[in-house]
Amino acid sequence: MSPRPPTRRLSERGTSETPTRRLSERGTSETPTRRLSERGTSESKPATIRLRALLPSLKPAEARVARVFLEPDSGEPHPTISSVAARAETSTATVVRLFQRLGYRHFKAFWMDLTLDARRDEAAGATTEATGDIDRSDSLPDIVAKVYTNSWLSLADTVRTLDVGALAEAIELISGAARVDLFGAGAGAVVLHDLQQKLSRIGQTALFWPDTHAAWTAAAALPPGGAALGVSHSGETVDTVEFLRLARARGVRTIALTNHGESPITEHAEVVLLTAAREDPFRSGALGSRTAQLLVLDCLFIGVAQANYDGSMEALRETLRVLRSRR
Description:
CATH class of the largest domain: Alpha Beta
CATH superfamily of the largest domain: Glucose-6-phosphate isomerase like protein, domain 1
Largest sheet: 5 strands, parallel
Shape: globular
CATH topology of the largest domain: Rossmann fold
CATH architecture of the largest domain: 3-Layer(aba) Sandwich
Strand content: 5-15%
Number of domains: 2
Structural class: alpha/beta
Order of helices and strands: HHHHHHHHEHEHEHEEHH
Number of strands: 5
Radius of gyration: 23 Å
């Protein structure tokens, strides 16, 4: 019997054996929503970022455990599963279930990663005093320091964990779309209005819907070749989730921008872009999330503009010329 030919390494195979099709060439049936591990929320992300992202989906007891882990100064350098459970007023099984959900087999490894994340923040100047919640005793300089620190930490964490592959898919999707419909509620509406203006300046047809019913009817009637982008920090905003659901049911390409990878909005998105914003009760859904969302959407816009560089530059020059005459 003749010997089997040796298996060729990946680098030795011709590209003809593994053709990679462009996003625009794939049918929607071949591009299901990517699994969570493929969206940049894998175990390579810092433990604290993944833990914050899980908060909205946790049960009350699990959320109490998570907040114990996220406290910047617990006063307990070497906690145990039992001590964490006692502070969270829950069972040790709940503590174990939470760190295992994040992909850890042992509590010690999980706690070590949390400690390393805290040291990284401290090395960057993010002290406990500068990152804590705003309270009634804070002076105005304290407020300025806390808002600034939490905002740049939201930006730094988002850049550090952003799935560039998903961003590239979103850029190609929008660049090839005949029309892009945008919807978000509250702070999500603010950042999408900004994106709509930018896209319009480079000749990309983009429609921002400030009214829920108008957004839903538009999504239900989107033409083939269109795209829809929904923004929700929590990923649970009912109006925005329904907007993407209707658009996906219509067969158009869908993109979601959220802070939480295991949220309802991701179930209706072909491409998911994730922020890693830090929020406190005073600024929830307002500053940290908005800053991180603007960062991602600005990257998205620049990528779309670059995809048609000459046309975009010409459109920007022309729109600037028109605006200068009114200033």
